[in-house]
């Protein structure tokens, strides 16, 4: 009798375990299917104030990496700007970044760059500043930086003003065509390990309906980036999240200075296999982490 009871118990127990295993498997499949459908869609921006802290600037990563900074230019309240520049000074002392990318609309007339000249620690490294002019690509630049492990990082800055003119359906698209030709030619003449294109205006489209011109521009630039193995495009923030990947290309957007909660800096650490990016707020708290591989595939 006891044997029958014991057998029944074990049989019932095994059915319970089997049911639980089936339930968990189905739940996992549902989750991955949901995630698969969401991949490739820009995510709605989440305020940095609600993001969990992931440590401080002093606990970011190994000192052996090659570091550089990027920040959104523009005008800020005096106190906010002071905190931001002091935070950048701390980065400079701890990680010895080799240069700063200033994602700005006004180029060398940018207010943040002008005020940074009063901070000697920040003048020890070169600043490369974008622009979005109304004329031809006066703000274009290309810089090659040798990395300590026999690799080369290429930074290509492009004046996105002509792109905006194209989106506004202006009749004269000569400047736009010249910019596209310049980008193609610049990418075609060299081959490097890492390629980052930098521009003021974001390219990610959040509302694809009734936006044919933006979709045309997006498709054209995406094809160029894929053909010439661009790893990432850095810009100011649009309507998506700060980190977004499409077709193996990372689109990294910077917090705009207009929102105090989003007044932060990006610290990039380059190693032989990946670039790790840390979004740090003006109080020194790491809010988001992102990794780009040499194939351009990124992961938060």
Descriptive overview:
- This protein is α/β, with parallel strands linked by helices and 300 residues long.
- The protein has 2 domains: 1-39; 51-299, Purple Acid Phosphatase, chain A, domain 2 (4-Layer Sandwich).
- The protein contains 6 helices and 13 strands.
- It has a 7-stranded mixed sheet, with helices on one face.
- The radius of gyration is 23 Å and the shape is globular.
- Residues 8-17 and 22-52 have low confidence and may be disordered.
Strand content: 15-25%
Mean pLDDT: 78
Uncertain residue ranges: 8-17, 22-52
By CATH reckoning, the class of the largest domain would read: Alpha Beta
CATH architectural grouping of the largest domain: 4-Layer Sandwich
The name of the CATH superfamily of the largest domain reads: Metallo-dependent phosphatases
Cα end-to-end separation: 58 Å
Largest sheet: 7 strands, mixed
**Helix and strand string, N-terminal first?**
HEHEHEEEHHEHEEEEEEE
| Helix percent band | 25-40%
Shape: globular
Separate helix tally: 6
Arrangement of strands in the largest sheet: 3-2-1-10-11-12-13
Radius of gyration: 23 Å
InterPro entries: Metallo-depent_PP-like
Task: Based on the model shown, name its key terms.
7-stranded mixed β-sheet; alpha/beta; 300 residues
Brief synopsis:
This protein is α/β, with parallel strands linked by helices and 300 residues long.
Note the topology.
Elements: H1 2-38, E1 66-72, H2 78-95, E2 100-103, H3 111-116, E3 127-129, E4 141-146, E5 152-157, H4 161-167, H5 174-188, E6 194-198, H6 212-227, E7 232-236, E8 243-246, E9 249-254, E10 264-270, E11 274-281, E12 286-293, E13 298-299
Parallel strand pairs: 1-2, 2-3, 5-6, 6-7, 7-9
Antiparallel strand pairs: 1-10, 4-5, 8-9, 10-11, 11-12, 12-13
């Amino acid at each position: 009798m006891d044997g029958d009871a014991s057998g029944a118990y074990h049989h019932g127990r095994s059915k319970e375990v089997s049911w639980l295993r089936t339930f968990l498997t189905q739940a996992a499949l549902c989750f991955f299917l949901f995630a698969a459908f969401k991949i490739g869609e820009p995510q709605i921006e989440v305020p940095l104030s609600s993001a969990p802290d992931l440590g401080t600037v002093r606990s970011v990563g190994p000192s052996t990496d090659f570091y550089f900074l990027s920040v959104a230019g523009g005008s800020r309240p005096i106190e906010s700007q002071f905190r931001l520049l002091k935070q950048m000074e701390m980065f400079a002392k701890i990680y010895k970044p080799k240069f700063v990318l200033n994602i700005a609309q006004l180029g060398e007339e940018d207010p943040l760059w002008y005020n940074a000249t009063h901070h000697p620690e920040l003048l020890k490294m070169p600043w490369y500043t974008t622009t979005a002019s109304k004329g031809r690509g006066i703000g274009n630049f290309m810089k090659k930086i040798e990395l300590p492990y026999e690799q080369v990082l290429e930074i290509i800055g492009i004046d996105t003003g002509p792109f905006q003119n194209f989106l506004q359906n202006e009749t004269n698209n000569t400047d736009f065509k010249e910019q596209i030709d310049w980008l193609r030619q610049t990418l075609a003449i060299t081959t490097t390990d890492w390629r980052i294109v930098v521009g003021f205006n974001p390219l990610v489209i959040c509302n694809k309906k009734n936006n044919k011109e933006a979709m045309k521009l997006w498709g054209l630039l995406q094809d160029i980036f894929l053909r010439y193995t661009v790893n990432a495009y850095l810009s100011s923030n649009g309507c998506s999240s700060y980190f977004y990947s499409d077709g193996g290309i990372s689109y990294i957007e910077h917090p705009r200075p207009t929102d105090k909660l989003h007044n932060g800096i990006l610290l990039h650490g380059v190693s032989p296999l990946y670039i790790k990016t840390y979004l740090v707020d003006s109080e020194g708290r790491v809010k988001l982490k992102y990794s780009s591989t040499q194939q351009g595939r990124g992961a938060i």
